[in-house]
Amino acid sequence: MSVLTLDQTSRWYGNVVAVNGISMTVRPGITGLLGPNGAGKTTLIALMSGFLAPSAGSVTLDGEAVWRRTDAYRGIGLVPERELSFGYLTGRQFVLANAELHGLDDPGAAAERALQVVDMVDPAGRRIGTYSKGMRQRVKLASALVHDPPVLLLDEPFNGVDPRQRLHLMALLRQMGGEGRTVLFSSHILEEVEQVARQIEVVVSGRHAASGDFGQIRRLMTDRPVQYVVVADDDRRLAASLIAEPSVVAVSLRREGGVDVSVSDFGSFAVRLPRVARQHGIRIRELAPTDESLESVFSYLVGG
Amino acid sequence: MNRTVLRLAAQALFGRRRGVVLLLIPAALLLLSVLVRLLTDEEVGVEAAVGLGYTLALPLVALLAATAVLGPEVDDGSVVYLLAKPVSRHVIAVSKFAAAWAATMVLGALPLLVAGLLLDWSQPRRALAFGVSAAVAGTVYTALFLALAAFTRHAVVIGLLFALLWEGVFGSVFAGVRWLSIGAWGREVGSDVSPLVDAAGTGLAYAVVAATLLTAAAVWFTGDRLRSFTLRGDE
Amino acid sequence: MSDPSAATPEGASVIHDLGYRPYTGARRGPGAIARALVVTGFRNAFGLGRSGKSKVLPFILLALNLLPAIVVGGILVFAGLEELPTGYAEYAGNTQVLLGIFVASQAPVLFSRDLRHGTISLYLARPLRSSTYALARWASLLGATLVFLVLPIVILYAVSLLAELDVSEQTRQATVALGLAGLLALCLAGVAGLIASWSTRRGFAVVATIAVLLIADGIVSAVQVIAQEEGRSQVGEIAGLFSPYSLYRGLVGAWTDAETATPPTSTGMELAYLGMLLLISAACLALLVRRYRRVATA
Q1: Which residues from C are below 8 Å from B42, CB to CB?
Q2: pTM of structure
Q3: Could you list the residue range(s) of the whole structural domain that residue B32 is in?
Q4: pLDDT digit string (tens) for A31-46?
Q5: What is the extent of the structural domain holding C111?
C-alpha cells in the first residue's frame, strides 16, 4: 500500500502562490489530476516527487517526507513532461541505464520486461532521436516502470500523442491501476481523464477545487441546476406544464425534438415528472441527463 | 562514483560535433609544436607553444568537457531522469566530474607533456613539469566550470571571461592576480617538478592547498545544486 | 462590409460586422522585410527588445571594452601627452579577447536560437528567401560588431580633439582605423555566424568560435614571434595570413605607425592580406547562405 498524502501544502515563489493550501490523499488506483493550464499541476507533481520543497505543510509518502530523500525514488516512478534529450542513446540503452541507476539485481532483464510492457521491444534498438512523440512517451514510461514502483506519477502523459498510441497508453494505465499501484496523472483534456480515471482531483489556480468520483461531485453541486433532456410525443405541452413546477428553473424546446429542462431540485423533479406526464396524457420516450459529464463538472468548477 | 552516470557522461562528451572540436584543440597544439620545432631551437619557441597550450587550449578543453557533461541536461531539464533515482546527488556530481576530468587530462594535460617533449626532448623533466602543471590546473578548471554549468546557463561565457580575461589579460598586467589564478597555481606546482618552469610566486603550499580546496568546494557545490533541482512546468 | 469607423448617414440604420477582418492595406516588399529583420537582429544582439537578463552580458562586455579607451583618454589629457598612447587601430588588437567573446556569445543569439527551436520555419513562411534571411542576420551581427569596434575609436577621437591634437593627423589615423575595423568586423561576423548556424547548442557554439579565433591567432602569433627572433620575417608574414586577428594586426602594422610582429612589407603582401580578409568574409557568407538554403528545403 503506497499512499501519497499532502497536508495543507502550499508553495509560493515570492508573491506568486503556485499551490495554495492543498490537502489530498492519493490512494492505490488511478487518480486524475485535472486543471487548466497554469493551475499548478506540474508544481504539485514536483512536490509529490520530491523535486520541490513545500513552503508550508507537508508532502509524505507512507508517512515519510519525499523532499531530499533520494531513497524514496525506489518506490516512485516519475514520467515528467519534459522531452527526453538523450537523443544519442537507443531506447534500450536509456531504459537499461535507468535500471542500473536503480541498483537492480538484473538490470538487463528488468529493462526488457519494461520495454515489453510498453510494447517498445522492436524499436528499442534505434536511437531516441529517431522516435516519434508517442514512442518517446512510451520509453519514458518504460524507464519509470523498470524498477516496478508502487507509485507512478505522470505529468501530461497524453500530450501530443497520436490517437492509437493514446489508447494503448490509457489501457496501460488502467492495467497499472488495476494491479494496485498508485497512479496519478495530470491532464487538461477531459475526455482522457474521463476514460481512464474515476477518481479525480481538480486544481484551479493553485487551490483544490474538488476531489472524488466525478459523478458524485456532480451530485454534490446541488445549487446548480441539473440539465435533462426529455423527449415526449408532445414536447410543447410538456414544456408548458413543466415550467409550472417549482423544481423546474427553465425549459427550452430543442430543434431536433425534445425539451431541455433545467432543474434545481432533481429529487422532487424525479417525483413530479411522471405525475405531470400522466396528468396531461403525455407519453415520455426518453429522459437523460445532459450534464453528467466531466466537462460540465469541470467548467462549473473552473468557471465558478 | 556511479559507473552508469560515468558512462552516460562519457557518451555525452563524445557526441559527434563536440567530439570533433575536443580532438581538434590538442591537435592544433601539437601542430604548433611541430611548426615551432621546425622553425627554431630557441627558448622563445617553447614559451610561445606552451603558453598557448596552457593559457588557452587547456581552459578551453576543460570548459568544453565540463559543459558537455552537465550543461545541456540541466538547461532543458532532462537531468530529472538522472535525479529521480536513489543515487546520492554528490555521487552523481563526482561521477560527472570524473568523466570531464578524464577528458581534460587526456586532451588538455597530456598534449602539453607531449608538446614539451616534441619541442625539446633533451629536457624530459621540463616536459613532465608542463604536464604536471596542466594536470593540476586542468583539474581545478574542470571542477570550477562544472560548478558554473550547474549554476547558470551562461556558464560558458563566464568561464571564458575568467580564463581568458581575468587570468590572461589581467594576470599579465596585475601581479596580484596570481593569488586567484588557477593557471598560476598550476605553474607553481610545475616549477617544483622542474626549476625550468617559472614559478608564479605564491609558494607551493598555497598553490596546492588552494587548488585542492577549490576543486573539492566546486564538486561539492555541484552536488548541492543538483539536490536543489526543481521540475519546471510550462512557465 | 460596412466600415465601423465611417459615420452613419442621417436617417439610415446599419449594423456593423465586427468579426474577423483581413488586412487590406498596403503590403511592403521584401526589401522592407529584410530591413526590419536587420534592425531587430541588431537590437537583439545587444539584448534590446528582449528580456532584461539578456542585456546584461553584451553591455558588460561593451563597458569592459570601452573602459580602456576612457582610461587612455584620461591619461592623454592629464599627462599632457602629444599623441595617443594607444593608436586607434591598435586598440582592437589589445581588446581582441573581449571582441572575440562578444562576437562568439552574440552570434548564437542571432543564428542558433531560431534553428534550435524550429522558429526558422516561421520566418521562411513569409515572402522571405532563405538567402535574404541569412544575409540579414549576418548584417545584424556585422552591425553589432562594428559598434563594438567603432565606439572606442570615436571616444579616442573625441578626446584627442578636445585635447587639441593635430586635427588632420588624428582624422587620417581614425579613418584608417575605421576602415580596418570594417574589414575585421566582416571577417568575424562571417566566422562566428557560420559556426553558430552549424552548431545549434549555444554553449558549444561559443567555445567553438573562441577556439577557432583565438587558437588560430595564438598559433600564428607564436610563429610570428619566433620568426622575428630568428630574423626570418618572411615566414612570419606568410603565417599572418592564417587568422583574422593576425591579418588585422598585419595591416595595422603596415598602414599605421604601430609596431607589430611581422607586418607585410611588400605591396603584394599587403594586397594578399587584404584579399584574404575579404576572401574569408565572402567564403563564410557563402557557406552561411548555403546552410540556410539547405535548412529551408529540409
Answers
A1: 226, 229-230
A2: 0.83
A3: 3-229
A4: 999 888 878 888 999 9
A5: 29-297
